[in-house]
Amino acid sequence: EPEVTQTPSHQVTQMGQEVILRCVPISNHLYFYWYRQILGQKVEFLVSFYNNEISEKSEIFDDQFSVERPDGSNFTLKIRSTKLEDSAMYFCASKRARLAGGTGELFFGEGSRLTVL
Amino acid sequence: AQRVTQPEKLLSVFKGAPVELKCNYSYSGSPELFWYVQYSRQRLQLLLRHISRESIKGFTADLNKGETSFHLKKPFAQEEDSAMYYCALSAGAGGTSYGKLTFGQGTILTVHP
User: Fold this and answer.
1) Is the pLDDT of residue B95 over 60?
2) 3-class SS of residue A98
3) What's the whole-number average pLDDT of chain A?
4) Which residues pair with A95 in a beta bridge?
5) Which of A4, A35, A59, A103 to mutate to test the interface with B (most CBs of B within 10 A)?
6) How confident is the model at residue A68 (pLDDT cuts 50, 70, 90)?
7) CATH of region B3-112, choose from 3.40.47.10, 2.60.40.10, 3.90.480.20, 2.30.42.10
8) 3-state helix, strand, coil in chain A (%, to 5)
9) Cis geometry, peptide bond prior to residue A2 (ω within 30 degrees of 0)
């Protein structure tokens, strides 16, 4: 069964450094998402991406964050200058379009744990 | 605005006992409700969705629009049900949120032998 894959599984970085988290969504999916979960807190929506552009973003997703789908398969989340409070588990998810027989189900990756020191 | 509330952070039951994980939501339109489960060291995975009205692993959930609730129930809990359970809401087919899910805080269910 196809799965969403994420790399790296864990990254440790120094405050102020740039980080890129990578995701390979399921191949026939059209909607892509990033969520994050700070330890002990709820899973929070960051951004959704459809038709090669951001379709919605949360207030968390400020100018330090960007997303890209550079080659039709990868979907990346970049944090330009990491802060201590960016330490969290970051989940990528994808969804098939309804018209293509999809439902509301999001398929999640296993997550990338980011630790900012 | 969308909001999902799971009032219990922790829930412990014994094997064979009934279990109910509570979920209440706030949304002005017609939402789609989901339960996601995360077993230890595994990814979030869909357990069930209200529109399919199915029973997965013995779990059921009924959408009560009057009470704005979507509680998850199982009549006889098993040890393998121990996991983190998340209730989530999507704006639905008519919404413009592109399928964004809003999650509750999650409930850690522990089923003791």
Assistant:
1) no
2) helix
3) 91
4) A31
5) A103
6) very high
7) 2.60.40.10
8) 5, 50, 45
9) no
What is the fold of A5-97+108-116?
Immunoglobulin-like (2.60.40)
For residue B11, the number of C-alpha atoms closer than 13 Å in the C-beta half-sphere is 24
Q: Do A110 and B34 touch (CB under 8 A)?
A: no
Asked if pLDDT for residue B8 goes beyond 90, the answer is yes
A76-112 core/surface letters (b: 16 or more CB in 10 A; e: else): bbebeebeeebbbbbbbbbbbeeeeeebbbbbbbbbb
For the beta carbon of residue A6, count every other beta carbon within 10 angstroms: 23
Amino acid at B65: K
Q: Please give the single-letter amino acid code of residue B57.
A: K
Residue ranges covered by each domain of chain A:
5-97+108-116
The predicted structure's pLDDT at residue B42: 85
Q: What is the pLDDT of residue B31?
A: 84
User: Residue A31: which of B34, B46, B98 has the nearest Cβ?
Assistant: B98
CB neighbour list of residue B44: distance below 8 Å, 6 or more residues apart = A43, A91, A108, B36, B37, B38, B86
Query: What is d(CA A41, CA A87) in angstroms, rounded to the nearest whole number?
Result: 12
Say whether A43 and B44 touch across the interface (CB within 8 A). yes
Contact A106 B93 (CB under 8 A): no
A104 contacts B99? CB cut-off 8 A: yes
Q: How far is B91 from A98, CA to CA, in rounded Å?
A: 14
